[in-house]
Request: fold
Amino acid sequence: MPFLAHQLARARAAGVEHVVLATSYLAEVFEPYFGDGSAHGLRLTYVTEREPLGTGGAIRGAADALDARPGDSVLVLNGDILTGLDIRGLLHRHERARADVTLHLTRVADPRAFGLVPTDPDGRVLAFTEKPRRPEEIVTDQINAGCYVFRREVIDTVPVGRPVSVERETFPGLLAAGALLHGVVDASYWLDLGRPASFVQASADLVRGIVRSPAVPGEPGEHLVLPGAHVEPGARLGGGTVVGAGARVAAGAEVEGTVVLDGARIEEGARVRASMVGAGARVGPRTVLDGAVVGDRADIGADNELRDGARVWCGTTIPDAAIRFSAA
Reply:
């Protein structure tokens, strides 16, 4: 299922009833799948940017569709973050602090690729450093984790009709104006899905229950075989592998920590680890995939070996024994 289904399910479990989806790139794919949200126990409203206006512009553009009134709390979620955050707890901390904005923060070993957010002992945000470049700029391992709670009227201070970054403009501007920005450091599961490898890891972690989502069917386990899939006796699945509807895994195949999308085929003796196999794609006999991405309807012949970030475009055919090793 789309990653967004997990975010919506977790928001609903936290008591959210109305969600505004601020979309731009591939905006046309959302409404046909999610509809009015009733199937997910929500009311969904769609707001589409005709040209990208940044993180702040997207939030401001969605404001007119909100039901919230001045003084109400508005939860904002980045669309590419999987987290085990206690959303109810974040909302409670925001209201208890009487903050203008509350930010979910997490700690990472290497914060250079993220926005740094130091706080005082009471959780008050002291500064923002977006993707530090020099060692002296790394003043904390706390990073912006992509989930916020705004007071409704604060959103109305974001400029209209031009690109705005909440990380580089809105939050530093509010801080300079004396607003109370509160940071909640949370040690729960957190993963940015900006790379294919992260997407595959997130899927495996959801299947195994390392991070929980009400949208995952059944109990956590080493694999999830969806209705209509066929796994032959003698095939081995593990590591949080998911096998989509209509997909087939042949005898002797080993599939570990992999996303096998609908209608894909893993042939006998293939070994597939930490990879994504697209809808309708085929992985031939004895072929090895390790950290690879195979596009929809691609056909990988027998006795090939693709590793370490190798990517095969949709519809591509690779003959038998054509590639013994490929790195991105």
Observations:
- The chain has a mean pLDDT of 93.
